[in-house]
Structure formats: C-alpha cells, structure tokens
Amino acid sequence: MRPESYRLASYAHRDGTPRAGIVVDDRILDVVEALGDTPIAARADEFTSVLAVLQHWSETRPVLQQAAKQLRERGAARGSPLSEVQLLAPVLYPGVILCAGANYRDHVAEMSKALNLPPEPDPHERGLKPWHFVKASAACVRGTGSSIALPAYSRKVDWEAEVALVMGRECRNVGVDRALEYVAGLTIANDLSARDHLRREGIAPESPFRYDWLSQKCFDGALPLGPWIAPLDDIDDVGRLGIKLWINDELMQDSSTANMIFSMAEQVAHLSTRLTLRPGDVVVTGTPAGVGSARGRFLQPGDRVRIWVEGVGELTNSFTD
Q1: Whether the Cβ atoms of residue 106 and residue 63 lie closer than 8 Å to each other
Q2: CB 189 within 8 Å of CB 224
Q3: How many contiguous H segments (helices) and E segments (strands) does the chain have?
C-alpha cells in the first residue's frame, strides 16, 4: 500500500450524526481533523459529509492523501480504532444510481444456458451501447454490517456482487479515453433483485408495459454499498479486479472485471451522453456469473452475504424476514 493511501468513508459520529472520515490502516480519522492546518481547513465545516468531500474533490483529494501519509510517518494514534466505529453507506445519498444490466460475459453465458437460449453475440459487434437502469437512492442504499429485511412480496430475492464507480467531477459528453478522470473511486454493491417480479402477469410479451422494474429492483435496502470508497489513485488496474461473493461462507461468485463486456470507461462515457453525471453519483457496473437465479437458489432469512473486491475491501450484510 502506498504511504498516501486511504479509504474515504461515512461513519456514525459519537453523537449519532453521519460524518466523513478517512480510514488509514486500522483507524478512522474525521475528515475535518484530517484537514489539519491546510489552506482549506478554514472551510472545514463544508466537508463534514462524503458527498461534500466529493463535490470539492479537486481540493480535498491531495489534502487527504497528504494527511494519510503524515499519519503513517508520525505513527500517532489519532482518530478511533476502526473496530469501534459504525460504518455507514459511503455516500449519503447519491443523486442518481445507474446500474448496468448483462455486462459480464460469464454471466450472460450462464443465463443463456439456464434459459436454454443460444449464446449471445458480443454487443460491440452489433453496434450496441451499454444498457443501464435506475435504482432509488435513499430507499435502496444501506451500509456494510446492516441487516436488510427481504421484501414481503418476493420469495426469489437474488444476489449480485458488483463494482460501483463513485463520481468525483461533473461529467458530460466525455470520451472513453478520459472517462475515468471523472471518477473519484470504487466501492462495492450488491444489486439485489426480486426475480419473481421481473414481469407483470397478464400482460402480453410484446407489450411495453410487460416489465416491472420498480418491484424487481427498488425495494427498501435493495442496494447495499460499502464499506468505503477506494480512491482510483490506489487501484492499479480497474480492468483486472477479482470479485467474489459468499453466502454463509459458501462461495457463489468468483470472477474478475476482466470479464466485463463494456468497460467501466465505456459505461461512464456512454452515460455522460445521456445525462450529466455529478459528484457522488454512482455507476454500478454489472455482475458476473454465480447468481441465484441460474441455480434456482435465493436469499433466505438468516443468510449472511459477504462480497470481496480486490483493492477495495469487503461488504457484508445479513438478511431477515
């Protein structure tokens, strides 16, 4: 790990309010304290939330890197032990959450086999663009360690381990070659899906009103995020990150971002032609093979899900009825 490496997190302050902090090794330091005597310290009250830190990313990014480096050099026990702090979802709350569908080659092959369909051709060969849907923000987002109630209307809630991009600059009509310059960092998402509510009963297959995206994707707690944001500076190669998911210690998903169909840069570039992406917005980049629907297995009350992404960390959640 580089001397200036850190993780940007939201945590519950001792008075219960959400605060922005930086995680350095096994401790967390409030961002306001991390600003020290830097030129922006006089405006410290502007940076109490992660969203505010991201909205001023060009200013805060180098300051937080220097703070992390100094913490390690001095070896001072500033801040609090990470084990004693409750982490919250990294961004409270994203302005928009955009989720990629069918974006891993191994997942597309898995679903084609499960549905007895012929293999899907590469969308690039057909001139197709990345495809995304929207998830609600405050209703869906939950932090690591939280317990999530499975929706009463579904019996087939599925897991989807995903890498999520957190925007750090306003982004509109950018090219693929520059798209990642607008990304602050990466976090982990579990794009939960109620598979038994994909389609509306009694609606003709060719009808545009056939699909029920709200019921399938937007129930309370449908998008755990966390545990923090790993700045993009600390990620050597976003195109080759390991990604794994366990349910009750049983490995279900084991893949790599190398299996993405549309790269992270392609997704950001395309989305930026449709709407302006802003600091704190989240792009969830797709899930690999190993989801429950391919094997007829779904989440049950009492299950514990753990997701690991190389270079980022682990997101853990439990489920109740």
Answers
A1: no
A2: yes
A3: 6, 19
Residue pLDDT tens, the chain, 321 long: 788 899 999 999 989 899 999 999 999 999 999 988 888 888 888 999 999 999 999 999 999 999 999 888 876 668 899 999 999 999 999 999 999 999 999 988 887 777 777 888 889 999 999 999 999 999 999 999 999 999 999 999 999 999 999 999 999 999 999 999 999 999 999 999 999 998 888 888 888 788 888 999 999 999 999 999 999 999 999 999 999 999 999 999 999 999 999 999 999 999 999 999 999 999 999 999 999 999 999 999 999 999 999 999 999 999 999
Phi, psi for 7 (deg, rounded to 5): -125, 140
**For the whole model, what pTM was predicted?**
0.96
- Residue 209's φ and ψ, nearest 5 degrees, are -100, 15
Q: What domains are defined for the chain? A: 7-88 (no CATH), 97-320 (3.90.850.10)
Distance CA 8, CA 64 (A): 9
Burial of 257 from C-beta contacts in 10 A (0-12 / 13-18 / 19+): buried
Residues shown for the chain? 321
Q: Report the alpha-carbon distance of residue 238 to residue 256 in Å, rounded.
A: 10
